[in-house]
Amino acid sequence: MTYPASMPLIAVPCDVRLFENYTWHATPDTYLNALVRVSKATPVLLPAMAGEIDFETVLGRIDGVMLTGSVSNVHPDRYGVPPSVAHEPFDPARDRLTETLIMKAIEAGVPLLAICRGHQELNVAFGGTLVPEVQEIEGRMDHRAIKHQEQRERFAIRHDVMIEPEGHLETIVGKGPIRVNSLHRQGIDRLGSGLDVEATAPDGTIEAVSVRDAKTFAMGVQWHPEYWAESDAASRAIFEAFAEACRARAERSA
Ligand SMILES: N[C@@H](CCC(=O)NCCCC(=O)O)C(=O)O
């Protein structure tokens, strides 16, 4: 595989998982594949060890940050809601890492793409709140993953998303609507202050946001463009636009 001369380094915060008697800091390969194959970037996994990380040094050496999806949910303490079983499972180490990383990346002008759990983390980092189970709210769709053994089926395209006219996302994917997949229970309730809505589902669920006044690409999407980044035009466009911002930063830092 050949890479362009300027190959951005993109930090990907890990989840913490327990298996085979070890604690792993890990991330799914679908996100890494999209970064390598479509963004033409090199992913750099960041362990969920917020207390041990010098964020300024890391952000000075990388060209972008991508937050992945995960079955875990942002701990409700982070947005002032009492925890319940409905909010579980949690990953407090990832919460600690991403909360600081998001704000410091935005401040430093490091491009940020936040997917699914990442989109929810972005909203919470900006003071927003989440609903624990979107499908339990009257009039809302069921956004959860379908039960199926095959990942291709679970990540199959499910519903429309309307793109906000004249927003940043419209410049990337066009006027829309676009068709997206859906594998989440939670969703944005109160929008974080300083975020703009970029796309919504037919039931009003906020599907994409951007950081107002960001120095560079800073966007969250509730769906999973990584899964179809090689074959779906809108998914590819998101990873290419993110890569372009990361390459611009890499060239500035060279
Ligand atoms: N846990 C949150 C975030 C959802 C998310 O990031 N899903 C990723 C896919 C997980 C899967 O394979 O089912 C929520 O549920 O809202």
From TrEMBL:
Top EC class for this record: hydrolase
Pathway: Amine and polyamine degradation; putrescine degradation; 4-aminobutanoate from putrescine: step 4/4
Gene Ontology molecular functions: gamma-glutamyl-gamma-aminobutyrate hydrolase activity; transferase activity
Residues spanning the membrane: none
EC number annotated for this UniProt entry: 3.5.1.94
Domain of life: Bacteria
Gene3D superfamilies: 3.40.50.880
Keyword Cell inner membrane belongs to the record: no
Keywords: Glutamine amidotransferase, Transferase
Database matches in SUPFAM superfamilies: Class I glutamine amidotransferase-like (SSF52317)
An example Gene Ontology biological process: polyamine catabolic process
InterPro entries: Class_I_gatase-like (IPR029062), Peptidase_C26 (IPR011697), PuuD-like (IPR044668)
Catalysis: reaction(s): 4-(gamma-L-glutamylamino)butanoate + H2O = 4-aminobutanoate + L-glutamate
GO cellular component terms, semicolon-separated: cytosol
Stored Pfam families: Peptidase_C26
Cited function: Involved in the breakdown of putrescine via hydrolysis of the gamma-glutamyl linkage of gamma-glutamyl-gamma-aminobutyrate.
Protein family per UniProt: Belongs to the peptidase C26 family.
Protein name: gamma-glutamyl-gamma-aminobutyrate hydrolase
